[in-house]
Amino acid sequence: MSGEEEENAAELKIGDEFLKAKCLMNCEVSLILDHKLEQLQAMSDDPSNQVSQVFEKSLQYVKRFSRYKNPDAVRQVRELLSRHQLAEFELCVLGNLCPETVEEAIAMVPSIKGKFHQ
């Protein structure tokens, strides 16, 4: 983004690097970290071998704020939101916040106005 343009998430002006980035919802990160934790535990013969505090805190955070626990539900949410040609940023914000109405979704992510039928 040039220095003259100001970032504005409401208008989806968030910079090319963010528009092209793959974003993950909290529930997706939770599944990934759970799987990694299982791998680490399976590889370790030493029960005192623990994951880092950052890993543990990150896992706690995404578990706390994940609405979807079931891997199939997580896939369905991404698939459903992907049908509306949302930017990754928009998709993940909506997937994390779970608005109940289109109006609520637009209030949270103004850049989606016109992408959903009200």
From TrEMBL:
Biological process annotations from GO: DNA-templated transcription initiation
InterPro entries given in the database record: HRDC-like_sf (IPR010997), RNA_pol_Rpb4/RPC9_core (IPR006590), Rpb4-like (IPR045222), Rpb4/RPC9 (IPR005574), Rpb4/RPC9_sf (IPR038324)
GO molecular function: nucleotide binding
Claim: Nucleus is one of the keywords in the record: yes
Gene3D superfamilies: 1.20.1250.40
Protein localization: Nucleus
Any Pfam family the entry gives: RNA_pol_Rpb4
Coiled-coil regions, chain positions: none
GO cellular component, one term: RNA polymerase complex
Keywords: Nucleus
Residue span, RNA polymerase Rpb4/RPC9 core domain: 16-118
PANTHER family the record matches: DNA-DIRECTED RNA POLYMERASE II
Sequence similarity: Belongs to the eukaryotic RPB4 RNA polymerase subunit family.
Designated name of the protein: 15.9 kDa subunit of RNA polymerase II
Organism: Artemisia annua (Sweet wormwood)
Lineage: Eukaryota, Viridiplantae, Streptophyta, Embryophyta, Tracheophyta
